[in-house]
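Assemble and predict.
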Amino acid sequence: MSIQASHSFYPLPGGIHPSENKAQSLQGPIRQAELPARLIIPLTQPGFAQAHVQVQPGDKVYKGQLLASGNPVTGLNAHASTSGTVVEITEHAVPNMSGLPELCAVIASDGQDEWQKLPPLDPAETDVDTLITRIHDCGISGLGGAGFPSHTKLRGALSKVHTLVINAAECEPFITADHALMREHADEIIKGIWLLLQITGAGKCLIGIEDNKPDARDAMLKAIEDAFDDRLSLVEVPTKYPSGAEKQLIWLLTGTEVPSGKITIQSGIMCQNVGTARAIARAVLHGEALVSRITTFTGAALEHPCNMEVLIGTPVAELLAQCDLDESRLSRVISGGPLMGFHLPHADLPIVKITNCIIATTESELPTPAPQQACIRCGFCTDVCPVNLLPQQLFWFSRSKELEKAEQHNIMDCIECGACAYVCPSHIPLVQYYRATKAELREAKEKELKAEYSKKRFDFHQQRMEEQKRQDEQRRAERAALAKKRKQEAAAGGEQAGGEQAGGEQKEAKDAIKAALERVNAKKAARAAKASQQEQNDTEPGS
Amino acid sequence: MEILTPVFTLLILAVVFGALLGYAAKAFRVEGNPIVDEINALLPQTQCGQCGHPGCRPYAESIAAGGPINKCPPGGESTIAALANLLDVEPEPLDAEHGVEDVRKVAYIREDECIGCTKCIQACPVDAILGSAKHMHTVITSECTGCDLCVEPCPVDCIDMIPEKNPLQNWHWQRPDPRLQNVQLIVTDQMRKAS
């Protein structure tokens, strides 16, 4: 058991040291946000399978009740985060990069905050499948940032993982949600980690934490000590952005480089965020669905920056007001960190599962960007790239839409951390170029696959048509041959028996026609008789 | 006399290689123009005929014969760029005469209105429509190429072309346009000046 923080790590290439701005929001304990009157809960996750809505407007719901179920493989369940009434199910703006609306349930709170929990599970006596099903039922997704459904990740990792990496690095400036969580709920995080070890069967667990949060580290060490589990060890890594990115943290802690285009599980390592670990502990041990999370509220426009435990679906504007927002100084509201986050067009947007930070910033704190200038080939971006890519090359290829070349230079391995754009002296929004190019590449791949498939279908269709034509022709030829043969036979017979025979044959044919006509007439008569009889039958009961 | 040695040597070599080449020309003969296959592989295979040719392969043949490369709306700009790259010519903008690039669409049959005439089934180049005479037809979405060919023959006009994905799935980041005021910047670009 390592009670002391281990200091052995593998240094990360590149990286930057932006000013941290973390102290502002760490002055007090985690606050409990006030119960909002109206919640907007997204029912679908962009990019994931569509959810089946389980409630209707007017329904009374309890806190933790299922609102929409995702499909069992890749879907994510959505739950009511407080008790109340479903007002409507409608498309509402949510914090996402596209700014496009998503299907949401609007809930009017009844102020009771009444739970409807699932029965707690005893992890020692529960099989892995039931545990994962519980995680699915509780709608848990990765709380670190990407929001990938946890049950999908865990199912893919079963008996393939030897090391569990817990991401407690929180390397992005301003964000302190995980830091605050570790200070106050380290025991629950450790319980969650224990469950994750139980599910995956991993032999050891490395908790990676940056050295700028000694109080969180001490709290975690104490919790590890109390847990008496020698599979757990905590590794302190130097503060550097982006050491909290999944593949980067795995390199820092284990020295394993996850190959390009592969996921970490293929290298036998699974990475989970501390917040996710805690949510899993709450789901299994208390039967609570993921209805709240810890979010950092910070930025110079807030009088009282803090961390708050907020219900999913709470409008951002209400929460900012609780932190005493100074509207006159506010220039912009940002969801996420200053490097990977995005603007919110307005504050009437709900907190979603992946909202780890809201920055209400002023013009002096995060000024409007200077206009983009030409690349001067200084190479700063190459020095700071944590993936050892060539950002400058990628920029040229992206700008000239040379998708193939960009792909050859491994643009798909870009983690979009923004270190290159941060150091660029020409203010080029590099990451945005890369994001666009990556999306186009994905689209092109999809198109190519579809074209290939369509070609196969079309070739098959052509082949089928030709085969049909060939068969038709064959049949026709056979028929023609048969007719010719008959004619020949007839001619031969005619020759043998002379003209009388031919006349006889003609007579025979005439007889056949006559017989057929008679048959038809007989049938018609029979039908007419039957019809008239039926008519009589139909009319009789009426008369 | 010495002059004869090189003359005979070269003569023998010429005969041997000539025979080899002659054999190779017969044995490894390539049927058709291989460039047509390469061009065809770059086309979207919708078989829609918007280019004015009856299918993708005929269009590939016309390109191989020196025809214009900008007549394929489903392929759009990316296909033109790929063709230009393959043939080493300058990419041209899409010829609007043949249609404009649009999001990928699939056919959708309004099943209440379908009379089961099988006309669309006969028109479909990829066998993506299911149904039989006097029974309701439906489109197998995953097989549909969005070629539009089934819309015309339908006598009751019950086929719609609808986008394959919803707008949220279709959305992705665009390159920043420095000329526009409303640039979709990510936050990264503002952070630097702060510190």
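The interface with chain A takes residues 40-41, 43-47, 55-56, 78, 81, 85, 124-128, 143, 145, 167-169, 171-176, 178, 183-195 of chain B (CB under 8 Å).
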